[in-house]
Amino acid sequence: MTSLAVPTDVNIKPSAPVWLFDLDNTLHNASHAIFPAIMANMNTYIARVLGDGTTPACVETVNAARTLYWKRYGATLLGLVKHHGVRADHFLAETHGMDDLLSMIRHEKGLGQLLRRLPGRKVLLTNAPHRYSTMVLRHLGIARHFTHHIAIESMRVNGQLRPKPSKLLLRKVMRHQRVTARRCILVEDTLANLRTAHALGMGTAWVTQYLKVGDPIGAAHPPKRLVRPGWVDVKVRSVKHLPQRLARLRRSPLAT
């Protein structure tokens, strides 16, 4: 598994940007079928955890717990680990285990060409598990364009799981990539993650084409109107529009 390793791409200029790409609903359309499947698996899992050992918890209890933990910790998983002794690896395997995953993926053509056109290093930074994200990357045909693949299993700081939007995680990523925040650009569909990145001084690009109001995955929760907030430097419908917005993203030392 690729984790927070030191970059070895010596041919990239020291002043070049480092792109931190999210995966789901950024590089492919997870809302089409994958998120609903994950949500169904997650609800079944939580109902079993919160049940009495014989009868699963009711829908209302499951929804309340999932929403509470996501709001409090930034990820439902963290609440289940903290309050119910759930093993993160077991939860991730159960919720992201889909026999027909590859048939569920929807994406744009030309993602490889896009990644080649963008100057600098590309890092995949996803709150999804490594096995799942590896399968999606391979299906998209873009794995070779990323120097590093950081999945949720690698998002530990001082032994604690710290997925996005954790500032501690983003600082650790920068240390291991040997870059300052002003050289980093986070490309995401999730505003909470972009807000944290902006607070640290990173560039931020918001991808909106796959967002749905009322999306079943809590981390998505787009606003009713897709208005660019102040902590987003660039709002694009598709990642394929990023090359046209480089001028705005290069407002920092990236322009040097």
TrEMBL record:
Entry-linked Pfam families: Hydrolase (PF00702)
GO MF, any single term: hydrolase activity
The entry's keywords: Hydrolase
Xref: Gene3D superfamilies: 1.10.150.450, HAD superfamily/HAD-like (3.40.50.1000)
PANTHER family: HALOACID DEHALOGENASE-LIKE HYDROLASE (PTHR12725)
Name used for this protein in its record: Putative hydrolase of the HAD superfamily
Lineage: Bacteria, Pseudomonadati, Pseudomonadota, Betaproteobacteria, Burkholderiales
